[in-house]
Amino acid sequence: MIGAIWAHAHGVIGADGDMPWYLPEDLAHFKSVTMSSAVLMGRATWQSLSERFRPLPRRENFVATKNPEFSAPGARLVTDLDGFLSDPRWQDEDLWVMGGGEIYRAAMPVIDRASVTEIDVRVAGDTFAPELPSGQYHCGPWQKSARGLSYRFCDWTRAALHS
């Protein structure tokens, strides 16, 4: 299964290489969803992670980059994204695409499900959530974070191609 996971505030997922909010509940959700799975991120997303969290623990980390000389200690480099995403391994194992915007867009044709945190705050940004194709989109109730932000967790599943 290839899934995608992101948080967005009215479509914004990033600003200047970072998330323009701090939502501990979303970080805990991300951890619970991706733990013990493989994660794929772009080079800029890898570099945006605090060094103490690189690689993400208890997950197989993959970093997509066009530069085969890029150094990502503890992660495996992916220089052929299409080949990586079409690997039969992902029929039996879970891979979570975790950004950034370019990687989401490239992976969207093969993503089976998405775990999306919607945050109700207006922020400026330069990176935006991908558009989800037709499918089932269900959201839980709005909740209030310890920091005062309203958020909810949503799940999307790709529509079946054949009935």
From TrEMBL:
GO cellular component: cytosol
CDD domains named in the record: DHFR (cd00209)
Pathway(s) it belongs to: Cofactor biosynthesis; tetrahydrofolate biosynthesis; 5,6,7,8-tetrahydrofolate from 7,8-dihydrofolate: step 1/1
Annotated keywords: NADP, One-carbon metabolism, Oxidoreductase
InterPro entries, per database record: DHFR, DHFR-like_dom_sf, DHFR_CS, DHFR_dom
PROSITE patterns tied to this protein: DHFR_1 (PS00075), DHFR_2 (PS51330)
Residue ranges of every copy of the DHFR domain listed in the record: 1-158
One MF term in the entry's GO annotations: NADP binding
Record EC number: 1.5.1.3
Any one Gene Ontology BP term: one-carbon metabolic process
Family named by the database record: Belongs to the dihydrofolate reductase family.
PANTHER family in the record: DIHYDROFOLATE REDUCTASE
Protein name: dihydrofolate reductase
